[in-house]
Design a protein that fits this description.
This protein is an alpha+beta fold and 315 residues long. It is 64% helix and 12% strand. Helix 2 runs antiparallel to helix 5 and helix 3 runs antiparallel to helix 4.
């Protein structure tokens, strides 16, 4: 026997809600701010001959592309939110955008390494005072963008809030944009440190060296984002705490009921579906009873139950 849980709760969360709209608006603001600052930094880095500022500008250009991708993902998710062809909604469009943003970060790190090594091998004079002003401007812009995205996250759609039984659920698309802004801020801080060292102590090598350090940190953040988004896209959820919670519920069913198969996958931001196969000796157990037992975990929004009774099993 197969049965599906009433999905009214999932349908309510399936819509493109207030949290998504706020996140989309925030990323749009950050996109425009990033584009303007990018042009200023690339122009100033080239004019003042600062590798750190130029790297920050090109770094920001890739972030503008990635943040633009985040905006596009929100728009696509909103456009197709009620399209019945998306069986579990359009949330994974946002996750896919986060994964692609992580790939952009890897490319940025590689370009930073290439540029820094080239400048180490072929040092160039730097106009420190002018470059310092631009780097500080970039840092201020990054703080403003980070504040906008943090506010866009809010209590309903944030980076670090919990849902249900203490599980942490991230908007991975918004998180990707946030990480891009943070890496920009990091690059700005390193640029300021490098310019200060070169200006006051003549350490010209510090400019490309800081770019190398920044590249390593960017790559590490990108790796973490790739892992998180890749796990969702590949439905690698069987090590999630919700799986153990499902097993505990099944263990509390009438004696003689065994879990023979279980599959859990994520279908939304903090929403999971599961397919359960049970073998039972209890003639009174029904799929409805199993669904009601699992209802204590509100993050489980879709349940398929396959129930085999002992008399249906081969000898």
């Amino acid at each position: 026997m197969n049965a599906h849980r009433d999905l009214s709760r999932w349908e309510q969360r399936h819509d493109y809600g207030v949290g998504n709209a706020r996140a989309e608006a925030g990323t749009r603001w950050v996109l425009w701010i990033t584009l303007v600052t990018m042009v200023i930094e690339i122009t100033a880095g080239w004019w003042f001959n600062s590798m750190a500022v130029l790297a920050d500008g090109w770094h920001m250009s890739s972030h503008a592309l990635a943040i633009g991708l985040s905006v596009f993902a929100y728009a696509a998710a909103r456009k197709y939110a009620n399209d019945p062809r998306f069986a579990f909604g359009t949330w994974k469009i946002e996750v896919l955008a986060g994964y692609t943003s992580a790939l952009f970060l890897i490319a940025v790190a590689a370009l930073m390494v290439f540029g820094a090594v080239d400048r180490l091998l072929d040092p160039q004079p730097i106009r420190y005072a002018e470059a310092m002003v631009v780097a500080i401007l970039g840092l201020v812009v990054n703080f403003v963008c980070a504040a906008i995205l943090h506010r866009a996250g809010g209590p309903e759609h944030g980076h670090d809030h919990t849902h249900g039984h203490g599980h942490q659920h991230d908007d991975l698309n918004l998180k990707a944009a946030y990480i891009h802004v943070l890496t920009d801020a990091l690059t700005s801080v390193l640029a300021i440190a490098a310019l200060a060292g070169g200006w006051f102590w003549g350490w010209a090598w510090l400019d490309p060296a800081c770019a190398l350090v920044g590249a390593v940190l960017v790559a590490l953040w990108a790796k973490n984002l790739l892992r998180q988004t890749g796990s969702v896209l590949l439905d690698r959820e069987m090590d999630h705490p919700v799986v153990e919670e499902i097993r505990e519920v099944i263990g509390g069913l009438p004696a003689g009921t065994q879990l023979t198969d279980l599959h859990v996958w994520r279908v939304g931001n903090g929403a999971y579906a599961c397919a359960i196969s049970l073998l039972t000796h209890d003639p009174a157990l029904t799929p409805l009873a199993v669904r009601e037992a699992l209802a204590i975990h509100e993050e489980i929004v879709h349940v398929t139950v396959e129930l085999h009774r002992c008399d249906e099993c081969p000898a």
